[in-house]
Amino acid sequence: QVQLVESGGGLVQAGGSLRLSCAFSGRTFSRYAMGWFRQAPGKEREFVGSISWNGGTIYYADSVKGRFTISRDNAKNTVYLQMNTLKPEDTAVYYCYVPRFRSWGQGTQVTVSS
Predict the structure, then answer these.
(1) What is the rounded average pLDDT for all residues in the chain?
(2) Distance between CA 64 and CA 85 in Å, rounded?
(3) pLDDT above 70: percentage of residues in the chain
(4) How would residue 66 be classed by pLDDT, with cut points 50, 70 and 90?
(5) CB within 8 A of 59, min separation 6: which ones?
(6) For 29-50, how does the pLDDT look when each residue is reduced to its tens digit (9 = 90+)?
(7) What is the chain's alpha carbon radius of gyration, rounded to the nearest angstrom?
(8) How far apart are CA 72 and CA 111, in angstroms?
(9) The three-state (H, E, C) secondary structure of the chain, written as one string
(10) Are 6 and 29 in contact (CB under 8 A)?
């Protein structure tokens, strides 16, 4: 069983930055690709980005490309989402996800004020 715990969300003004973290436990973290998703009020959960087991392959949604950066530290069993130049439309609950186990974290709220 895999456990995922996100942290780092909060309230930030438009143009600001936040870094989200997702701590992974229960399996050998370095073996698995990880993903970030988000869900805004009244909308479906959407893909933000993903990173391969070794960080060699990273994908981003078009809406965040050039502003968000995904990284991982396999020694710390943690995946990160650095979010820069935040916009009000980035407001959502952000979730990390491990596809191999179809497991989600509890989410962390990000609110961007205009």
Answers:
(1) 97
(2) 10
(3) 100
(4) very high
(5) 49, 50
(6) 999 999 999 999 999 999 999 9
(7) 13
(8) 23
(9) CCEEEEECCEEEECCCCEEEEEEEECCCHHHCCEEEEEECCCCCCEEEEEECCCCCCEEECCCCCCCEEEEEECCCCEEEEEECCCCHHHCEEEEEEECCCCEECCCEEEEEEC
(10) no
What is the C-alpha to C-alpha distance for residues 87 and 14, in angstroms, rounded to an integer?
Answer: 5
Residue 104 pLDDT: 98
Q: Residue 111's pLDDT is what?
A: 98
State how far the alpha carbon of 103 is from the alpha carbons of 21, 46, 57, 106, 111, in Å: 16, 15, 20, 10, 24
Tokens 């990284």, located at residue: 71
What the block records as the tokens of 50 is 């993903």
